[in-house]
Write a structure and sequence with these properties.
It is built from 9 helices and 12 strands. With 281 residues, the protein is of the alpha/beta class. Strand 1, helix 1 and strand 2 form a beta-alpha-beta unit. Bound molecules: NADP nicotinamide-adenine-dinucleotide phosphate.
């Protein structure tokens, strides 16, 4: 199967490429420097040249707080940029797998969000990601899968575990938010699931996130323990840690559509720790 990956140098993009190679495919991996998804003509030319069966769109503006002050720039990538990818894929007979986010929800539900739940983003980033979902569905009405995932972390990018490991090595105490709940998802697991999905992608929205859920506080405590660090992690509330963008207080994702199930987030964390230890050795 021919797979084209956009945003291929990103945290998830790298793991999708690796999973594609591991599954015996020859991916065409295009980083932002090779393909800017906001350039419609370039996207069409790249897709026409690669003649893929599947396009996995990992390109995105992912600076959640930065999107509040730069909405137009965030929207260009996450909205029309995503639409460009899906339109070009559809025009060349390829299926689009587009990656979206738990931040399309308002987080006011108290039970896991499933695919048919009403969306209601509370941040500029969430609104831009939702616009991307709409543009992908419009551009490739019969040939798209929108995969929403949550709280990604991986060896190939800046992520929460890396930040906690760095801070916990420098400080005796860390205050971490305990009133936001989500599913910390290892990009190694999500990348492999996306490549599996590429074999028989279902039409529409799919929730694919790690099993289990926790708060940032519980996640941080587990990271500190896994890193063998001596640092006290203390719970704080969201209003004690002001940020530009609002985050959904609850964004646990589950599937009512039989999406591939991923391993528990603790297993993802342990794989992440071994991968980063190997890379540092
Ligand atoms: N991170 C999370 O917690 C999380 C949670 C749920 C869903 N997601 C979604 O998962 C997907 C992958 O995110 P990630 O965590 O892997 O983020 P990431 O590491 O920031 O990767 C995104 C990649 O897209 C590239 N990019 C930005 N603008 C582009 C453009 N105009 N054209 C082409 N490429 C462009 C970035 O390049 P530069 O680095 O050069 O800008 C980066 O390599 C995104 O759709 C994101 O919304 C992420």
């Amino acid at each position: 199967m021919r797979i084209l990956i956009t945003g291929a140098a990103g945290m998830l993009g790298q793991d999708v490429c690796e999973a594609a190679w591991a599954a015996g495919h020859e991916p065409t991996a295009l980083a932002r420097s090779e393909l800017d998804v906001t350039d419609d003509g370039a996207v069409h030319a790249a897709v026409a040249k690669a003649r893929p069966d599947i396009v996995v769109n990992c390109a995105a503006w992912t600076n959640v707080d930065g999107a509040e002050g730069s909405y137009d720039a965030a929207l260009a990538v996450n909205g029309p940029g995503a639409g460009n990818v899906a339109r070009a894929a559809d025009a060349s007979g390829a299926w689009t797998i587009h990656v979206s986010s738990d931040y399309v929800f308002d987080g006011l539900k108290l039970t896991p969000y499933v695919e048919s739940d009403a969306v209601g983003p509370i941040s500029a980033y969430g609104r831009a990601k939702l616009q991307g979902e709409l543009e992908v569905a419009q551009a490739a009405p019969a040939s798209h899968t929108i995969v929403r995932s949550s709280w990604l972390f991986g060896a190939g990018g800046s992520c929460f575990p890396k930040t906690i490991l760095r801070l916990a090595a420098e400080r005796d105490q860390l205050d971490v938010i305990s009133d936001q709940l989500g599913c910390p998802t290892f990009t190694g697991h999500l990348g492999a699931a996306l490549v599996t999905l590429a074999g028989a992608p279902p039409l529409g929205v799919l929730h694919v996130a790690a099993a289990g859920d926790c708060s940032w506080f519980a996640f941080a405590r587990e990271i500190v323990t896994a890193g063998g660090l001596e640092c006290e992690v203390r719970p704080i509330s969201t209003d004690q840690y002001p940020a530009a963008a609002a985050r959904p207080p609850y964004s646990v994702l589950r599937s009512e559509r039989g999406a591939p199930s991923l391993p528990h987030w603790r297993q993802g964390l342990h794989q992440f720790m071994s991968q980063t230890a190997r890379a540092a050795a």
